[in-house]
Amino acid sequence: MNKNRLFPALFVAILLVVEVHAQHSRTGPQQFNYNVDLERVGTSKQRILAVDSLLQSFVDQKRVPNVTAFVAKAGNVVYKKSFGLKDMERNIPATPDDYYILFSQTKAITTVAFMTLVEKGLVNIDDPVSKYFPGISDRVVTEVRNDGTYETRPAAGPVTFVHLMSHSSGLNAGLSGNIRRIEKRMADSVRKAKGDTLVVPVMGQRTGGAGTARYLKDEMIALAKYPLGFDPGSEWNYHISTNMLAYMVERISGKSLRQYVKETILEPLGMSQTDWYYSKEKLGRFVKVYNYVNGKLEPAPNNYSEATVSKEQTYVEGAIGLNGPIEDYAKFCQMLLNGGTFNGHSILKPETIHLMTKVNRLPEVNAGGKGFQFGLGFELYNEHKKPAPEVSNTAYSWGGLFGTEYIIDPEKNMITLFYLNMARKEALAPLFISKAYQLFEE
């Protein structure tokens, strides 16, 4: 072969190798690495044992029935362990493969699902929600009377998708929530006077439904009839905004929330065990619920896990409802840390994740408390508010009602997850988070 032809070919081949390596560096590891040399990643067996000791102490002191934790740095899994019993009555040990009720960890997945629609050019984060759902209110309640009647004024601006993702929409907030409570009380009184049986829905009997609607659509259409509790963007009011966001995912995508989330996030990332509903035989995979009351562990109702095997699987909401094992959600966290890719699939662009996790969307003073900041779907940590001093000021996170928590820390190139399944519990996560970060202290 002509040497003059050989050199350009070799040069091109070298460029291709460099580009592939650079692409990998940009996207991060596409699978977790469990064959880890602890010293090479900056930790040691002694530090691992220190984490073991802490988590085992929670169990030994009967502060928790069980706990599961996961830590990965640069995709290298240095910690994935469970302690205690998933079922104390039957003496069944907890394992990292157990299912947990994720509650509000659902919100981040719903938010990412919406942002995939943004990347497709179907919607903009600053669009008024009324562009896609004309029924949403553009008025703020100013007075509520004892009979449920009320006064309103025009809102300072429309509810946008930024407001939904940052919980600053004003939906069901303040006096607006009072209207609905008064109406429910009056309706219950009428039914009682007629001798009708009062139906008291238990949140979680439909994987989190708080009303009697069979579909999220019905609940959101009913909600939109009420005025806002404050001007959009002027305050923080948690929870229901993500349900409206979920309904918008359905309207814009033309698919059910469950189908769209599975197709765009869960299946591509390999989160095969995360879902709203399961077949009946999966019920045994769930960690049982206990409460920590007056220094003792007590069994609690398992309504939420039992609801996941319901025959009527029509109600799926975006604010809560997902369940699954810790490693499944760790894949979602690693995707975000990687800048939007994992398992060989691109979910979001790096610039989209930057938009979600680097810009505080709340006023400086808000109901979240001193230093509280929120982006699009995530709390943003900063020098004034974070769960442990070792956490970077640029990390972001959220968690679930029963004690599932995670942190995504780009500066440290690590993800940390801590899972409990308890309605009443101590604030133990910060102790673990500190110890997890100390795994890599220099």
TrEMBL record:
GO molecular function: hydrolase activity
Organism, as annotated: Niabella yanshanensis
Record domain Beta-lactamase-related: where: 51-423
One Pfam entry name: Beta-lactamase
Protein name: Serine hydrolase domain-containing protein
Keyword NAD: no
Signal peptide coordinates: 1-22
Enzyme superclass (EC): hydrolase
Assigned keywords, A-Z: Hydrolase, Signal
Keyword Cytoplasm: no
Enzyme Commission number: 3.1.1.103
InterPro entries reported for this sequence: Beta-lactam-related, Beta-lactam/transpept-like, Diverse_Enzym_Activities
